[in-house]
## 1
Amino acid sequence: MMTDIHATVDDQLRRSRQRYTLGRRQLVELLADTERPVTIPELLELGARQSQSSLYRNLAVLEQCGAVHRLVSTDDVSRYELAEELSEHHHHVVCRRCGRIEDITLPPELEAAIGTAIGTVRVERGFEVDDHRFDLMGICGDCR
């Protein structure tokens, strides 16, 4: 699976006239191994072998080409994850106190209900939906 991810990211970067450097490849691997969106300090803790400034630059390039998604939580800290094209469709739970974001996968019947609601919006409003997000906001177990 990592081979497919690397091939896709390489293609996305080439279309943006960027190179798939070793630093970017390592970032993709670190993000693929996480189970939630992570901050730059967390990437450093996970073993990123780049300076903090290089991480910011490489994440910005990966975000611009569509390989990485940046989320800003209630604490105004950026967290990064692989784009859904490279991982799986999921949603998030977000802690209002600490800003932590966790991935969740909804049951198929709930995803189907969301799909039906999107279809209704498309018909009633003439709005072409190309993506959706479903974030649950609250207080995590650590902050309670």
## 2
Amino acid sequence: MAVQSAEEYFAAHPSWESELRELREMLLTTDVEETIKWGAPVYTVNGKNVVSIAAFKNHIGIWFYNGALLKENTALLENAQEGKTKALRQIKFERGQEIPVQELRKYVLEAIQNQKEGREVKPTKPKKVKIPEDILAAFKEDPALEVSFDNLSPGKKREYCEHIDQAKREATKKSRLKKIIPMIMAGQGLHDKYKNC
């Protein structure tokens, strides 16, 4: 059953309930609205995501959706996924670690002010994928392959192109191409088989 409220979320994470409640109480003293997105409490300003909290097995975290824009309060922030996320920043707390609620409140207030001023990290358009010659040649032999490729997401297209480009030897390129053609035709990504493990 999907979580419908912060209370349900806390009940689903009893080992972190007191810490989550502490963060929530601090957040609700600010100018945010509480909602549930992606199964966890998210705090918004004018319908825009500002902060969220979440519990995991070994830590809890507070996320700042445009945390990269924080100037005054940055000491505790970490990039959520180095090299991948441009805007999202997080602060993690492990079991037994004290949560500096008053210090965190400063981070939240700055994030709220940024949102009210319309400051956001705009997503960048992904670079156009350069399709390797080997794949283009395969399109000429089988037009249905090109249609299937065109229907893939930009990320899946990029994975396949890089997979072929990274092969040094021509024989390796041909071998890789032979393996990926059925996957492309099935609409799968190169790494899909690992995603649900």
## 3
Amino acid sequence: MQKHRIKGSHRMKPLSISVLTVCGIDELPAQQARNVTHVLSLLDPGWPEIDTFQSYGAHHRTTLRFNDIIEPRAGQILPSRRHVADILRFGSDLEASNGERTEGHLLIHCQMGVSRSTAAMLSLLAQVYPNEAEDRLFARLRQIRPQAWPNSLMVGYADDLLRRKGRLTEALRRHYGHQLRQDPTFFEWMTRLGRSRELEMAVP
């Protein structure tokens, strides 16, 4: 896990995160004027550092590197329990820093803003709202990123780490079904990416 402090090394002020954004790498330039205060970057292991962040204002960025896959592939890194634990630790650090209630803007991105980043955002929502019904968490995720198709492996680890007893995974199945009804092109897309197991998970 890499942590970066961009444009200034002063200790960050406690924050109450009020704006949540998920996007892909190509969308990052459009976010630079939106006062982003915290970034969680989920990158492929070989992906270079992103120059766009140099044009952002002062912010704090944490980078995790693993591939967007759900089955082992030669030369690629599966999302692991440790990766999701690092994401939840990132969330705990944010929550611990909100004492002064200053407004904050959290941006989570991966390659396309569809799978890894939405799984991370869902995990953080489930962490912050432990008593919220799982389907409501996914509804909130769709408000943040309508094209969300969270990585099922990551959601499964979050389910376990947050002691949701399988409820996040069951809600994920309903979310997949919802997304397929809204946009049937997900079927072709996920098949091409080798994610047929997630299509089979979807509740019709």
## 4
Amino acid sequence: MTALNADRSLESRQGVILTLPVLAATKIYGGSLVAIDANGYAQPAADTTGLKVVGVAKEQVDNSNGASGDVTVKIERGMFSFVGAALTIADRGKTVYVADDQTVQLAATANKIPAGTLIDIDGATKAWVFVPFNIAEGQADSVAADVATIVIDFNSLLAKLRSAGLMGTD
């Protein structure tokens, strides 16, 4: 390779959306937690050995009649609401685990599949979870530290909005 001697066209990705191949005989619903298996194929997140949550489906895709990789799903990372089981505000900043493709819980499930980090809750059953891409091994500790910072910043901003009368307390 040689150094540039003129401008070049720069390609980039924002790092918010990924496109992944879908497992054979699989349907993924929009808004669901998505996991990949050891072969890198996307499927609905579940408490199943070997799965790793990688994001949330932007749209429904149906590969029910196809082979692995025949269709792709767009997934995104970020903070999303899911059904929460037995969570309290004291649990903010903790890892939540996959119960199914729309439900998270604090107690580690049988296969301990992390869904992300609990950022906040609304009532007894609505959990706001930061879901990272988490494709690489060993990324969980780094993500947990980043999310802990996000939680602190979020709570500080929330307190400021409430004290300024711009946001209610419920």
